[in-house]
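dumping this here before i forget
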Amino acid sequence: MLDLCGIWKFQFFEGKQIEDINLPDVPLQEEMCVPGCFDVLPDHYCKRGTGVYSREFTLETPCRNAFLCVDGMGLRASFFVDGRGIGASQLTYSAFELETGVLSAGTHTITAAVDNCFDAEKVKLFCPYYDFYAFGGFYHGLSLRTMKRESMIDRVIL
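structure:
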């Protein structure tokens, strides 16, 4: 398991939803801590929009598959590895995993766009002014779980 918490490159796009941004190729001029919520910081306090995060990680050996493990974010997000989309989530507060596919040995880049806009059509699991306040960002850690074998039993559900 590779811990991805720490300082990430970051840029906030006020008033923009994920679809309004040319992902993953956007200039990132700021820094943001993960876990952490961008709309509680002085520069972006109580503002709605999308925060784009990026960081590099290095694998010593290639892996057949890996899973990006997100332990909670809000409100919705899209994720990329080396510029390739690996998935999206609207699971506010919830933990989830996204499959990365094959990763070679060497340096890779993860990019995440996290949107804290109130859009009832896109975020079905959160109701503004009804649920908890929806901060934008990562509520808990991120990690990368690599698979050493081509086929491996990860869990059994009965």
